[in-house]
Amino acid sequence: MERRTPALASMAGGIIARFTFTRYLVASVIALCGDMLLFLGLLQADVSPAAAGFAGYAGGLVLHWMISIRFVFTPSERATHGQRLGFVASAVIGLAITTGLISGLSATGLAPALAKLVAVPVSFLSVYAIRKYGVFSGA
């Protein structure tokens, strides 16, 4: 019976991890909706693709932070200053990935909205890993 306890604990940890990823995915989709709405609105206002991508990402970031600290990583205590800084640092990395891909792909002739759609999964997976295993590793 004692051998089953570590196996059950491992299985429970795997299930919890999957739900964390699912909650993060839902939070990201909601934030992405806000991001894309702002991005497309700014493109309609003749803002450059890179600037629109930056502004959209920044708006989505604020929304993502509010969702993440309440529903995704739910730390046992209030978010720390270090977590806030780590969240912003991971966002800067995601922003660099997003802006760089939008700029580069748009320069090759790809429509800015399609370039953003290419950038989304790359940025998403990179930032998720940083936040899960770094910023909120203790949550």
Descriptors:
139 residues; mainly alpha; 4 helices
Structure description:
The chain crosses the membrane at residues 21-42, 54-73, 85-107, 113-130. It is found in: Membrane. One of its GO terms (biological process) is polysaccharide biosynthetic process. Helix 1 runs antiparallel to helix 2, helix 2 (49-72) packs antiparallel against helix 3 (81-107) and helix 3 (81-107) packs antiparallel against helix 4. This protein has one domain (4-135). The chain contains four helices and no strands. The two termini are 29 Å apart. It has helices at residues 4-44, 49-72, 81-107, 112-135.
Helix percentage range: over 70%
Biggest beta-sheet profile: none
Q: What's the domain count?
A: 1
Low-confidence stretches: none
First-residue to last-residue Cα separation:
29 Å
- Note the total helix count: 4
- Category by helix and strand content: mainly alpha
Mean pLDDT: 82
What are the secondary-structure elements, in order, as H or E? Answer: HHHH
Strand share of the residues?
A: under 5%
Radius of gyration: 17 Å
Morphology call: elongated
What is the number of strand segments?
A: 0
